[in-house]
Specification:
Layout lengths: L2 H7 L6 H26 L2 H11 L4 H11 L3 H21 L1
Helix pairs in contact: 2-5, 3-4
Length: about 90
């Protein structure tokens, strides 16, 4: 979560501790949604492979696995980020 994203959704000007707390919540929401989308596209065997590689907690290994098995992973993440961004902007506008 970068400064530009936080500015766009209206949390950048909050006190740092509150901004950090909200950013962590947003990141968890994005991760959950990405995981759900992956669950819709991967086979059971692929999901087992993703779970196994995720348990290593090696980001490089996880990203390599995703690149090999989910070539549109970046697009999935970007789509989810845009969805979340739109939702947050709508809440802030209300």
């Amino acid at each position: 979560m970068n400064e530009e994203f936080m500015r766009e959704v209206g949390i950048w000007d909050l006190p740092e501790d509150k901004r950090r707390e909200l950013a962590e919540g947003i990141e968890k929401q994005v991760m959950n949604r990405v995981s759900l989308k992956l669950g819709e596209t991967l086979s059971d065997a692929q999901m087992d492979g993703l779970v196994a590689v995720s348990e290593t907690e090696d980001e490089g290994q996880i990203l390599a696995w995703l690149k090999q098995h989910v070539p549109n992973y970046g697009e999935i993440v970007a789509g989810v980020l845009n969805e979340v961004k739109s939702e947050l902007k709508a809440v802030n506008a209300a």
